[in-house]
Structures are given as structure tokens and as C-alpha cells.
Specification:
The protein folds into 3 domains: 57 residues, no CATH class; 53 residues, no CATH class; 95 residues. Helix content is 19%, strand content 38%. The protein is built from 4 helices and 17 strands. Strands 9, 10, 11, 12, 13, 14, 15, 16 and 17 form a 9-stranded parallel sheet that branches. It has an 8-stranded antiparallel sheet with strand order 1-2-3-4-5-6-7-8, with helices on one face.
């Protein structure tokens, strides 16, 4: 596919040099790969076991493969505004549904950076509602927990669903990386105030953190740090890292994309190259 994409530049140059009308159809084929350029846009196709199609038109870019593991549609909502990416894929294996206590613990960790110990479940729900909604809720505990999760944007489902369709809006001057499907990662509890050091590369992993520092020496990995960490240090390269609450971020590697959701000010030290650190 990379070789075929390289032919596009040659094809465009050939059209201009030969004086062929812009309304003409131009086709180049190389084995199982082909490029077609015409008035409706550019189509790049790869046939065979790993079939893939890329269509570039005035309306946007569409990328899909035969197995539908990756289907991405990219379009702009106006000059200088943002890019909207619609991505459909098949999610990873399902895991068991979480108990009410586990769901509350996830919400507490997202809000406070740790779970509340030594209080009954109902008292913990009351506190979350008062702190985040302003008043105690009504209905069953299950209903109240679900409302908290929806209000705060916290995922407490505990399982992945198939045929997921997502829409991502990217503001101007920001970027996003879209790769092939990876299996859903198991969430690993790192324990209270434990430091976390990641050395394994080419992995998708999620950790639930409750204090301590996180050091990423990995390369080409997708890393999700849930909950509260003190300092995040990234020495590796080509990683996609997301974290919830963090006090300080130091990046010594290159080509890393890091997002965080901390409501308070975060100290950022970017000592590497081509890194992106974004507050979402």
C-alpha cells in the first residue's frame, strides 16, 4: 500500500506534463495494488488477504479493510475549524459486569484519585452526589450510581461491546493517531501510593493508580493511567498515553501523544521532540 501511495505523486505529475484533461481517468496498477485518479477523486486499492481501500474525495477520506476491523471516515467541518473522524471497529473481548461497589470505587477514583474506605456504600454514593451534583439523588442505588457515571462521564460498564462506532472531533492545530485494532486491555490495580515503571514495548495496558509516580520507558504502546498519579515521566517514544489526574508531566522521549484530564494546573516539561501534551 505504501508503494501504491507513492505512485499518486507520479500520476499527478504525469497528468500535468502530458496535458491530459482534469476530467480524464488515470489508472496505475502494480500487482495487487492500484491507483485511480479521476474527476471524483483518488482511489487506492490493495487486493488479496489483507485487502484495503482508501478513497480521497472532496468530501473527505474513507479508509476500510475487508475484515472491517478498521473503518475510518475523515471529513472537515469548515476551513480552519476542526476535523471530525468517524471510526467503526470491533471491540475486544468482553469482561464480567462490575458490582455496585466496584462501580462506585471507579467513580471515586476518577473524582478523588482514590476510593473511599471505611464507609457504607450508600454513604459513599451520598457523598459523590452532594460533591458533584449538589444534592442526594432518588431511586435505587443502582439508578443513582448510573446517573453519577453519566454526569461525570465515567465508564462503569465493565465490559466491551461489539461494532463500536465513535466520533472524535479534533480542534484546529491538534492531531490524533489512528492505528489498527488492538485487544481491549485488562485494568491492573497498581495499589495505593505505589510507583509504576513500564519497560515492555508494543503493548496496550491500563493501570488504576492511587498515588505514586509513573515512569514509561516503553515504545509504541497504548497506555491508560486511571485515577491519580503524582509525576508522569515518559522516556520512551511513539506512545499514546492518557491519564486522569496528574501533578507533573516530564517528557524526555519523542513522538509521544499524551492527554490528561486534571482540573488543576499541571507542570509540563517537554525535553524531547515532536511530542504532543493535551488537556482534554
Amino acid at each position: 500500500m505504501n508503494k501504491t501511495l507513492a505512485v499518486i505523486g507520479f500520476a499527478v505529475a504525469a497528468l500535468s506534463q502530458t496535458g491530459i484533461s482534469a476530467l480524464a481517468q488515470f489508472n496505475v496498477q502494480n500487482g495487487d495494488e492500484s491507483v485511480s485518479i479521476g474527476p471524483n477523486g483518488i482511489s487506492v486499492q490493495k487486493r488479496g488477504q489483507d485487502a484495503q481501500t482508501v478513497n480521497i474525495t472532496p468530501g473527505g477520506i474513507d479508509i476500510k479493510d475487508s475484515a472491517q476491523k478498521q473503518h475510518v471516515n475523515i471529513r472537515s467541518n469548515g476551513p480552519g475549524r476542526s476535523v471530525i473522524i468517524n471510526q467503526a471497529s470491533t471491540a475486544g473481548n468482553s469482561t464480567s459486569t462490575l458490582s455496585l461497589e466496584q462501580q462506585v470505587a471507579i467513580i471515586e477514583t476518577s473524582v478523588y484519585g482514590k476510593r473511599i474506605e471505611g464507609k457504607p456504600l450508600l454513604a459513599r454514593v451520598d457523598k459523590l452526589e452532594i460533591d458533584n451534583i449538589g444534592t442526594k439523588g432518588t431511586g435505587s442505588v443502582k439508578v443513582r450510581i448510573a446517573k453519577l457515571a453519566t454526569t461525570l462521564g465515567v465508564n462503569i460498564s465493565g465490559h466491551a461491546t461489539n461494532n463500536v462506532a465513535t466520533t472524535t472531533t479534533i480542534r484546529a492545530n491538534n492531531s490524533v493517531n489512528i492505528g489498527n485494532k488492538r485487544e481491549a486491555a485488562t485494568i491492573i490495580d497498581n495499589g495505593p501510593n505505589h510507583d509504576l515503571v513500564l519497560n515492555t514495548s508494543n503493548q496496550t495496558v491500563s493501570y488504576r493508580c492511587r498515588g505514586g509516580d509513573a515512569v514509561v520507558n516503553s515504545h509504541r504502546s497504548q497506555i491508560h493511567l486511571l485515577g491519580k498519579i503524582n509525576d508522569l515521566v515518559v522516556n520512551g517514544h511513539d506512545n499514546v498515553i492518557s491519564c486522569d489526574t496528574v501533578d507533573e508531566i516530564t517528557v524526555n522521549g519523542h513522538n509521544n501523544q499524551i492527554t490528561y484530564r486534571s482540573p488543576s494546573k499541571v507542570d509540563i516539561n517537554d525535553n524531547g521532540a515532536n511530542n504532543k501534551v493535551l488537556n482534554q
